[in-house]
Amino acid sequence: MDAQTLTYIFVAFTFSVYIGIAIWSRAGTTNEFYVAGGGVPPVLNGMATAADWMSAASFISMAGIIAFAGYDASVYLMGWTGGYVILAMLLAPYLRKFGQFTVPDFIGTRYYSSTARVVAVVCLILISFTYVAGQMRGVGIVFSQFLNIPIFWGVIVGMAIVFVYAVLGGMKGITYTQVAQFCVLMFAYLVPAIFISMLVTGIPIPQIGLGAEVLDGSGLSVLEKLDRTLIDLGFGAYTEGSKSTIDVFAITMALMIGTAGLPHVIVRFFTVPKVSDARKSAGYALLFIALIYTTAPAVGAFARINFIDNVHNAEYADIPAWFQSWENIGLIGWEDKNGDGKIQYAPGAPFQGKPIFSNQRRADGSREITNAATDNTNEVYVDRDIMVLANPEIAALPAWVIALVAAGGLAAALSTAAGLLLVISTAISHDLLKKTFAKGISDKQELFYARVAAATAIGIAGYLGIDPPGFVAQVVAFAFGLAAASLFPAILLGIFDRRMNKEGAITGMLAGLIFSFSYIAFFKFVTPEMNTAEHWWFGISPEGIGSIGAVVNFTLAFVVSRLTPDVPAEVVAMVNNIRIPKGVNKPSMH
Amino acid sequence: MMNEENNDAYWKANIRLTLILLSIWFLVSFVFGILLVDTLNQIQFFGFKLGFWWAQQGSIYVFIILIFTYTVMMQRIDRKFGVSDDDEDDAAKNEEVQ
Known about the structure:
The complex is a heterodimer of chains A (590) and B (98).
Chain A: H1 3-24, H2 30-35, H3 42-53, H4 56-69, H5 74-98, H6 103-110, H7 114-146, H8 151-201, H9 206-209, H10 222-233, H11 245-260, H12 263-266, H13 275-293, H14 296-311, H15 321-328, E1 332-334, E2 357-361, E3 367-369, E4 380-382, H16 386-394, H17 399-437, H18 443-466, H19 472-476, H20 478-485, H21 487-496, H22 502-526, H23 545-563, H24 569-578
Antiparallel strand pairs in A: 1-4, 2-3
Chain B: H1 2-35, H2 37-40, E1 44-45, E2 48-49, H3 50-80, H4 90-97
Antiparallel strand pairs in B: 1-2
């Protein structure tokens, strides 16, 4: 069977599993809809958290980013795993003891203020929507590349699936679907990685293969070979960074505390039975995430070696089929600048701007590109997102591995989208309606509004996926900066500083949010031409500014809280209570 | 009052453990993987430059160990101060395991 038929079979099979689970585990109460009834065992919650966490970007793009950025990509590896240490030790157990449904719930109750709650809802919606649009886009891309379905219909199918299990099943449906999705995506990531590690180094464990000798008789290790090859071609060494130390530091910190402040991740820890389970499940979550995050650097390095070996100085006439199939959908582009019929790979952009393909073919069969060529010697444009998806083809792996990768990419995108949509709908039905603007509604009505909000959010996310405004891709990474600067400090202070009052927390959240938002907006949208190191404050890029935003938040919150009235006694009692694991309740039914 | 003193002592023990573990978290990622990366890269480690290994592999392994250490140690501290949640409802717990 060919890869496309197999892909149809794999995707249809995994989708019917997800739907089956959704029907089996549909939610009947708000408690089940919001936090899966609070009875998810820690190992399963760890898997669900890992699937929730592993987005289309982690699955599809991360290894590609590492392949082309080398050491510089370490910020993502450390940032997106180290955040779980903070989450496990500073937030998750205490929020579980608090025992409510949402992040704004905690902020609204702890800071005895509807204003604080609404500010938290605004932060949450801003963070989650920027994030979810990228997921729907990921679904569309996988459909169009592997199944030849237009992106529009790909997104529609993805929306329909998420609709069924998020709207019917709520958190309960999502949790058990995510467990299945984790199994699919882990298998889909590790199988090709093991194959390729065997091919390049003869060692089946990619984490060890990355440090092993290449099987080409050169006696060099993978990283030595990469460093030498890249330096020969005029690139910087793979294992050395090009970013400044302070920027790497700031970005890593922003990603770590941003991870810990992401509402769709935090809420997963509301679903386990006990405080000790919240700690455990953070450990399992990181273990499962690390399976993929420690494999990604190996996949990235092998992919870069394979790419250079296969492409550099190869005659276009003899190029393997995968090169042309990605060229056909416009993610690889080539122009024979020196007219020797061979492909030359070198640093720098080959064309001015992203390549625009005409419908014409050149005499040699390659696609004509209308952009003017640059005057460097690089002749190939390659979209870094294709590395994971193209890897099995580049390494000539069997067709079923390619089908598996497609199913894995979809699992990654759908699981994250569902988790995000749930926190958006919960924030609207629970925090905005039930707790703020429509206090009298019954449990049944609240559940109905939660489903309406989820359906609406899916519609908006789908629209953003089909027709993404240009800024979507730009802002996804900044969801972390905003979470780091707004929600994280407010939650942390709420637990660890008994004297933190509503005046301090609200000032801090708003200042952190506005500061980071303005800095990012200034360099990314207002004056993108100034987005270079000499204009940045202290040399910190917009990606890393969330860590400064957090410092602004902490400082202002502290100063303001010490100059304004004390925290009421019942709130101090509540803080004392969440610090003690004993006496944990299932989330209240109210 | 007795109870309050106990809870304060529990909180101090908790903070102490958390700070120790977080300093290791800081050491392996920010110090080994970022601040000292160039120095550590002079050292070879199973085919890796050591600083690079910390940044892309080692720090992640240590993070996992840190969380599980925290889980186990906190369970002990919880029991020592009599604030553990594990003896609350064993029957319910058994049900969940099945």
